[in-house]
Amino acid sequence: MKDNSRRGFMGKAFGGVGAVGAVASLFAMKKSWDPLPSVKAAGFTTLDMSNYNENEVITEKWRGKPVFVLKYTPEMTAKLDEKQKERTIVIDGSHYMVNIALCTHLGCIPSYEKDNKKFLCACHGGMYDFTGAVTKSPPPRGLDIPPFKIDGNTLVLGEEGTEYKFMKENGITL
Question: Is residue 1 one of the residues assigned to a domain?
Fold first, then answer.
């Protein structure tokens, strides 16, 4: 260090400024890649399940997609077979269907026939029962169930809880 020259000092100063600039550039790039807070907030939808009426389909919104929520009547619950029970979400003793409201054939929005308790996709005649399972082709699978987590009397869409993970592991939803 005895030979500290002006040239050596300039080299060290230039190296320090370059290192600070590189770190600042990397920080700015990472910040630009992160999703905006508004996008993060749109990833979760919280539903208070006590607000729904029996046999009435309410369309909610999650990540820009429509989501059907249907609270079953006691008669509907009594008619459930084992396969249909797998698609059912139970909160506080009430049974619900919560599905992304897009036909799995071509992405149309099916309509709910309250009297027949079924969903009809008018585009190509596909039908789903009140649990969202296919009853008439061409849809290749039942209505998709969005990721959810049960938190007391609320349902949090966009977060994977144990019930959803069980459905996913058993091939009930994607």
Answer: no
**How many CB atoms are located within 10 Å of the residue 15 CB?**
10
φ/ψ (deg, to 5) at 96: -135, 150
Boundaries of domain holding 30: 6-34
pTM above 0.90, yes or no: no
* Parallel, antiparallel or unpaired: strands 65-71 and 118-121: unpaired
* CATH code for position 58: 2.102.10.10
- Beta-carbon contacts of 154 under 8 Å, excluding residues fewer than 6 positions away, are 46, 47, 48, 49
Query: 87-102 pLDDT, tens per residue?
Result: 999 999 999 999 999 9
Judge contact between 70 and 84, C-beta under 8 A: no
Q: Are residues 21 and 96 in the same domain?
A: no
